[in-house]
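Example S7 (structure tokens).
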């Protein structure tokens, strides 16, 4: 006998509370990645956070493999975190950081180029700091543009709501005036 809808919901809730929600979050992160604009924003934010943490740790003298493991924990997106873990494993095997990050497929090309430049010149920390600052500036500009586009829409909606409120108050008064006169 097939469980009814309520039983399926309860089973799903129990699964989520028991730790089964991780797959759901991973699926959600993959879906968000499917939408280009949302993916670009999530990718940029995660790249900025990752690069900033990795830069701080490498400048402080932490070993690259340990710094990668610590920086991986700062990323909120499950899918990107999974790809960083794979890149970290490749670095432990001896692959260059820029090659591993490029193969991960979740970092912007400019950041990968800056990491490659830092690896070649021996100034990885400074290059990661510049990459993180660049990513942060790009995200700030993108958010400012979206807010600038949404702001007029919000004003129109608020104007419509005010118009409806004024009409709701004035129409009964006009109707009473027509009944009297």
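Recovered sequence:
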């Amino acid at each position: 006998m097939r469980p009814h809808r309520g039983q399926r919901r309860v089973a799903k809730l129990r699964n989520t509370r028991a730790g089964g929600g991780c797959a759901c979050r991973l699926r959600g992160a993959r879906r968000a990645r499917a939408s280009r604009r949302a993916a670009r924003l999530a990718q940029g934010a995660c790249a900025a956070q990752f690069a900033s943490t990795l830069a701080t740790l490498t400048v402080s003298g932490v070993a690259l493999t340990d710094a990668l493991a610590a920086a991986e924990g700062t990323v909120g997106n499950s899918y990107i975190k999974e790809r960083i873990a794979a890149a970290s494993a490749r670095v432990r095997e001896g692959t260059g950081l820029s090659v591993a990050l490029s193969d991960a497929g979740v970092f912007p090309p400019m950041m990968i180029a800056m990491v490659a430049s830092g690896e070649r010149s021996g100034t990885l920390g400074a290059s990661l700091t510049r990459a993180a600052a660049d990513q942060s500036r790009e995200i700030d500009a993108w958010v400012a543009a979206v807010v600038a586009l949404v702001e007029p829409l919000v004003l129109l909606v608020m104007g419509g709501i005010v118009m409806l409120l004024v009409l709701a108050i004035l129409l009964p008064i006009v109707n009473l005036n027509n009944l009297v006169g």
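Notes on this example. The CA atoms of residues 66 and 149 lie 42 Å apart.
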